Amino acid sequence: MSDVRPVSAPVRAWDDAGAVRIGRRSALVLALASLGGLLMFCWPLLVRVDPSSLQHGVDAPFVFLAILPVLIVIVLAELSEGGMDSKALAMLGVLSAINAALRPLGAGTAGIETVFFLLVLSGRVFGAGFGFVLGCTSLFASALLTAGVGPWLPFQMLASAWIGMGAGLLPKRVTGRAEIAMLVGYGIVVSYAFGFVMNLWFWPFVTGAEVAYHEGAISYVAGAPVLENLHRFAVFTLLTSTAGWDTGRAITNTLAILVLGPAVLNTLRRASRKASYGVAGSFEDPGDLGGRTTASR
After folding, report:
1. What's the confidence (pLDDT) of residue 170?
2. pLDDT tens readout for residues 172-191
3. pTM to 2 decimals?
4. Is 29 helix (H, G, I), strand (E, B) or coil?
5. What is the SS3 assignment for 190?
6. I need a labelling partner for 172 at 20 to 30 A (CA). Which of 44, 80, 144, 163 fits?
7. Residue 212 half-sphere exposure, CB side, CA atoms within 13 Å?
8. Which residue spans within the chain are E strands per DSSP?
9. Could you give the CA distance from residue 115 to residue 61 in angstroms, rounded to a whole number?
10. 32: left (phi > 0), else alpha (psi -120 to 50), else beta?
């Protein structure tokens, strides 16, 4: 009788070693979630709203309830298409916990954010779908840890999810020093982009916004043309956060990726290869494997 031994199924050709790829269903869910999230940020520019001190205090819980099913759908889509298995879910939990522990080291003080560099590197290695979910879970876990739960949390989760997803969509063929340079550039861009969209979530609801060293109103004007309000918002962001918080975040990301990036990327890729994400075991007769046979007994 021939020996029958367990062998691994052929490994898929990854764009990046061990990265978690997304299929059509996952891509569709991500696109719809991103579109919905963008509308969630921008809707005050499209309709007339009245500034209020409550800001998003009323609708934020409903936004949060809308995000959770999206995350569940993404994970289920990944599982059904073989893109995310139990090992990837375990890695998701570990990285979310690490990010939650890292955030209190800076917690945004003077723009020092220690949570985004690992999100960028993880999205780079494990893919856009993984990065999207990691962005949400990291900010949610860190908010629970630092008592940072508030109407801003759903917006932080979505903005961070876009950062992780974008890192997974960067060109895969770039390696070595060029890859680190690309990730540094991406980290700088998303630092300012994060500040931009996070200002947008509350700016329309701020009354009487003004800066002593700037002449002219920078508050939201209900019913004004979209371009006019966008101009006011751009000036508001430039004067209140770009040179301070956003630049501090960009510096933090740059230093963290330059100093820790190569080692962290190697560690994540080594873990990905050893875990063999997406590879399932099967049982076949060794005699069928490329002419390799074992003696009959």
Report:
1. 94
2. 899 999 999 999 999 999 99
3. 0.76
4. helix
5. helix
6. 80
7. 0
8. 5-8, 281-284
9. 24
10. alpha
